[in-house]
Write a structure and sequence with these properties.
The chain is an alpha+beta fold and about 475 residues long. The chain is built from 14 helices and 18 strands.
């Protein structure tokens, strides 16, 4: 990390810290009192993409092709969420075979993104002490760890390609199912890759967990500030493909459960003047109270267990160490390891299932049956909603209105709450630039925020920027 200071005015200095470990551009606004102690923290998205408005007027069938372009990281999640939304608009019952193929896409992208985050962002952030952190520097510490992680990343992308037709911006999910299933030859070849991936994960998991244990005090110094936690479940187990939408409080109590079609009974969005992100709270509380977290930490806490042996054993070890409910934000790194194991096992189950080659994979759709459809899946970073309002125009069913609630948008208020839980009352002068930088980025990066998805005229501002303010006046900028 390089440190620069440049004159902004006679009263102000700008401190620039280089960092590349976040997707997209954002600011963190830190308010301090006259003594320099932190009083408030805000997360600011500074890119606006207008994606929902852009989709209005398109045929609804185009949404699974258009929405993956929101992002190159989790494009597959948007692909499946849109397909599920238009299933509802058309009143289509998706065949079991098609659901299995779609599930393969969802599992593949979660595995891919988790492995990618760990080796490129998460592990360099918490394992390296130097100021300029990167995957390349992590390789100096443990070359094999990074190699194994990148190979698992590649395996996840190959799973998305097998089931979705393309590794980035997949194309096969359509209203009523999928346009084309993978061939038996393709599946047979991928089963061999899965065996290799299992061996690589076994080595990766041991190495990564060893390092995380070494820095455990650093991870646990950041308390949970989030009030509520959300996931999709079937029964009492998390289901990445969707199910009922549940909200738990931080004591581990289930406080709300609804069908995703009625998600507005559980959560609400806010428009705030300082950000292009719309923060989300529970429906019965106002912002910033009632903040919600979703994603790996929420899912491993909410699920009662797993039906696959390796993931269940890792979850049991996690709970024996940290308790039945432990919401510390930086436990996301270990939660991602658990979910890599789980999605790897789930992919293997699909590949070995006879139903992957039996029955229909697409049903005919014939005209609009519902004026609204909500598609919901677990994306790598948490719950994702695609809410489509449709209208019939002659022979076409078109998008009348479209709303996307991404995990990063839903997590925005929880990120602020976690930062406030750690920073409130601390003296920024005593912390120093690097101390403040480290604290903020450790929390933010644990969420793996995806700003391209969360903000919906890209301006000239860039990078991750922390602003320290007193009485509304900027007194310090830390640009990273």
């Amino acid at each position: 990390m390089t440190l620069q200071k440049e004159e902004v005015s006679k009263q102000e200095k700008r401190i620039i810290l280089d960092m590349t470990l976040i997707e997209g551009h954002m600011k963190v606004l830190v308010d301090v009192d006259d003594q320099g102690k932190v009083t408030d923290v805000k997360v600011q998205g500074i890119d606006s993409r207008y994606f929902e408005k852009f989709c209005e007027g398109f045929p609804v069938d185009e949404l699974p092709k258009i929405t993956p372009r929101i992002c190159g990281l989790c494009s597959a999640s948007h692909h499946i969420a849109s397909a599920k939304a238009i299933d509802v608009v058309y009143g289509a019952e998706v065949p079991k075979r098609a659901e299995l193929i779609r599930r393969g896409v969802v599992y593949g992208i979660i595995l891919n993104n988790h492995a990618l985050h760990l080796v490129m962002m998460g592990l360099p952030d918490v394992l390296l002490d130097e100021k300029n952190k990167s995957m390349m520097k992590l390789m100096r510490k443990d070359h094999e760890l990074v190699k194994l992680g990148t190979e698992l990343t590649s395996y996840g992308h190959e799973a998305v390609k097998l089931f979705g037709g393309r590794d980035i911006h997949p194309v096969r999910a359509v209203a009523g199912g999928v346009a084309k299933p993978p061939s038996e030859e393709e599946v047979k070849e991928f089963i061999e890759k899965t065996k290799e991936a299992e061996e690589k994960f076994e080595k990766f998991e041991k190495k990564a967990k060893k390092y995380l244990r070494e820095v455990e005090p650093k991870l646990l110094q950041y308390p949970n500030g989030a009030e509520y936690h959300a996931a999709f479940v079937k029964g009492d187990k998390v289901d990445y493909y969707g199910g009922n939408f549940v909200i738990y409080d931080s004591n581990g109590n289930l406080v709300k459960e609804v069908d995703p079609q009625r998600y507005e009974e559980a959560i609400k969005e806010y428009v705030v003047p300082w950000s292009y992100i719309k923060p989300v709270t529970v429906a019965w509380k106002e912002y910033p109270e009632g903040n919600i977290r979703s994603g790996p930490v929420s899912r491993v806490n909410i699920t009662s267990g797993y039906d696959t042996p390796l993931a269940q054993s890792l979850l049991q070890e996690f709970r024996e160490r940290y308790g039945r409910f432990n919401w510390h934000p930086l436990l996301a790194h270990e939660a991602r390891i658990i979910e890599i194991a789980h999605t790897l096992e789930l992919l293997k189950e699909i590949l070995e299932s006879p139903e992957l080659f039996e029955g229909d994979y697409l049903v005919d759709v014939n005209g609009m049956k519902n004026e609204r459809g909500v598609g919901a899946v677990e994306a790598p970073r948490g719950v994702l909603f695609h809410d489509v309002r449709a209208k019939q125009e002659n022979t076409l069913v078109k998008v009348a209105k479209f709303n996307i609630i991404t995990p990063t948008a839903l997590n925005a208020a929880a990120m602020e709450a976690d930062l406030k839980a750690y920073l409130s009352g601390k003296d920024v002068k005593e912390m120093g630039d690097y101390g403040l930088y480290t604290a903020v980025t450790n929390v933010i990066r644990s969420y793996d925020p995806c700003m391209a998805c969360a903000t919906h005229s890209v301006n000239k501002l860039g990078g991750f920027l922390i602003e320290v303010r007193n009485r509304g006046k900027v007194i310090k900028r830390i640009k990273v």
